[in-house]
Every structure is written in structure tokens, then in C-alpha cells.
Amino acid sequence: MKNIPVIMIIFGGSGDLAHRKLYPSLFNLYEQGLIHDNFAVIGTARRPWSHEYLREQVSDAIHETHDQVDENEVKAFASHFYYQSHDVTNVEHYVTLKKLAQELDDRYSAQGNCLFYMAMAPRFFGTIATHINDQHLTGSGFNRIVVEKPFGHDLVSAEQLNKEITASFDENDIFRIDHYLGKEMIQNIMPMRFTNPLIKNIWSGEYIKNIQITLAERLGVEARGGYYDTSGALRDMVQNHIFQIITLLAMPEPKDLSSDSVHQAKQELLKSLIIPTPEEVKKNFVRGQYLGSDTTFAYKKEPNVDPDSTTETYVAGKTKFTSGPIAGVPIYFRTGKEFKEKKTRIDIVLKHINNPYGQAHSNNITIEVDPESKIYITINGKKIDEPGIRREDLTYVFSKEEMAKVPDGYERLLHDVFVNDSTNFTHWSELKRYWEFIDAVEDAWQKENEAGNPEIAQYLPYRMGPKEADNIFESPTEHWIYE
Ligand code: BG6
To answer: Which GO MF term does the entry hold, naming one (predicted)?
Structure first.
């Protein structure tokens, strides 16, 4: 693997994301030689840390995520890290940062290549982008920027942020990260759809009755009440992760696997995304909040949450496209906190066919993303000792050995940023379309809130969410496959 020369600046270098995900992933890429002699990382944050202290943190992060490591390697890796105490609103600090980046560029022969990583509170993204531009922080080589989610709070704020970022970076150099696109089974959707005649040939409204996507979480909002109460499940999970999955499931086949072709196919599809009217939102969407239990708080009692909050910790909804291979097929989705279990899965439900045996079970193709990686197809067969049809699953489960080989999503996506592959990142025109959809739902809800009659279903923790979500189906023969 080639050794990419680069100076990486992480805004939010003392944060949780850097510690849990970025430092361990960078170490793995270092071990593979993708970054090696010619790189340095500057971690910035407000805290008054020293270079040495940051290096200790980096080393701790690696030990916490790796069973066995060569201590000399960890030390050598950590020696590439530098810390700069930084107030994102202070112009002077950007001047100092630029000086340090230039010094390190010389010392490590990084060829003027810069990678900026926005890993701090999203409210600072615009300010940072503006200062990068005003203080000319970009280098003379490649300049790339990775932006964490959420990218904006609605379409207007996303457009503003995009303007601030594109002042210094070309669209091709902006990597809007969505960690779901780094997951093994999400990356498996395209090969599954396009290489198997068994699947490809039935991928149409003629055979598919509906598609169901569930992103269920066992955890509540935990310590993130402050952020979450301004976001809610629709913005936190649907705007990004669920829409990325929907797009991969519904897009036409790209002409090849280049990043441009994949994005082109996605954009072609998204033009035909149906944006719901307020009436459709009322009919096809359910929002909910979890109640408390003996040992857990109700959402409204969580720390930093408004006791009168109308923010949803659960949402179920429906969408459709007017073009593409599954035009007209209803796509149902749901996501929520404090579900019975952590489970990310996609169910493709096929239509029944007339047959001489009478009733048969539907064929479903299920892709389980988390916690296990597996694919299973339900099929009908003969009962052994009595007349009739029984249902069996054809299952492919990834073995422990295979799973051990799967890199963490962040490692994969960071790798792609270094090698300049944008395939698994969100293009601006896709993001824009997702926000148009989300805004339509949020606006309808907002009007209900203002009219004083918001319909917010209350649900018991650690079950399957609000029962109202059973009523969003188009026909009485449809129901949630995962129950
Ligand atoms: C994040 C959300 O994007 O995804 C969190 O902000 C959520 O609220 C998380 O918990 C879920 O990710 P995963 O990979 O655990 O399914």
C-alpha cells in the first residue's frame, strides 16, 4: 500500500469520536503502510493539552481497541501527533495552526497535502470552514475535508454550511461522512443486487410487495439529551443512514463502479423521490417518545431534555419513488431508541403467487446489518409427514473469522478519504434532496405542534415501539416482518 504524505488537522482532537474511532483507525492504516513516514496529525480542541498528553491519549485509544500491539509501533505512531489548543472563533489561533501545519509539512515532507477533519460539535462547522478560507489554511497539494453529521439542521442551514465549505473546497474534496456507508452489509447491497440473477431479476414492482428498514437501538439518549432534543430520530437517523440505505436499494444499476457513476445513479433516482404532503405525513408517519420504567427515565425526564419536548425518539414512515427499478414499491422504515434490542435489518417482501397448494408463505429476503452480518431468504417447501407447505430459511451467516477480518467502518472510510475515493460519501445533491424530504415532514409536525394537537405516541421502553406504527401500511395484507 502506498505511503500517502499528508498533514491531518482534527478539529475535536480531545473528543470521544477521535478517541474511540479516529485514532484506532489511523493506527490500523499506519500499520498497513497507507500513512507512514510522511504524515502528521494535529489534534485541536479548547483544552490546554500538550503534544505529550495527546500522544498518551492516542496510545490509550489504541490499547483500548486492540488486544495485542507492538509497543514500539504504538510509540512510533503516536510520535506523529501534535496538539494545538484552539478556540474555533479566535482568528489568531488559525494563524498559529497554519504555522504549525507548515512546519510539520516541511519536517515530514508532506508535499503540501492537507486533510481537515471536523469532529466537533456541528454548530462550529461553519465557523471553522470560514476561518480555513479567510486564513488560507489550505496547502499547496491536495486539500480535503471530512465533515461529520449532522450536515445542517434543515435545508436552509445545510445550504449555508455548504456555501461556507465550498469557499475553500471543491465538491470532489468534501467527504460528508455517514458511518453506515462503511458497514459491511451496507456495502454488500450493490454486489448482492447486481451480481445475482436470482435477486436482480425480481428487483421490480412486479415481484416486490414492499421493503422494510428497521434501525432499532436498545440504548436511550444517554448523555446526549441536549443535542438529541434539538434533533430527534428523523434528523438523527432517517436524514442520513436510512436514506442512504433506501437509495442503495432503489437506485438503478450504475454504468460502472466509479464514484461518479454510482453518484450519478443515486442522483437519477432521487429526482423521483416523492416529497410527502402534510396530509401524507399525517397518514404515513408515526412519531413517538419512550416512557420510563422502574430503572430508566422517560424521554421527557432525561437530563437536558425539555420536560414539554415534542422531539421524537421514534419515527416510522413510508416513501416511494416514481422511477427506478422499484418505482411505486412502498418502502417502510422505522427507527427508535429503547427498542427491545439492537437490530439493523432490511426486509424485502415479495408478492404472493397463485399456486395449486393454496396459501404459501411470502418469500422474504432479509439483510441483517447489526449486530450480526447475515442474509437469509425464506422459502416454501413440502412438509415431511403431513400435507401442506412449510417455511424454511436459507441463511448465510458470516463466520466469526470472517467478521474479524471486517475493518471498522471508520477505518474503511478514512482509507477512502486518503485514496480519494468518494463512492461511499454523500454528495451535496443527494444530501439536499434528503433534506427536502425531512423538511416536509418536520414542517407538517411543526404545524401540528403549533396547533396544539401533536400526535406523539408514547411507547414502553425495551419493546417494539408504538403500536401506531402498525397502521402505516397501504394494505391489510402488509405488516412488519420483524416483530
Ligand atoms: C448515530 C446517531 O449517527 O448513529 C446515534 O447520532 C445512533 O444516535 C448511532 O446511536 C447508531 O449507529 P450504529 O452504528 O450503532 O447503528
So the answer is: NADP binding
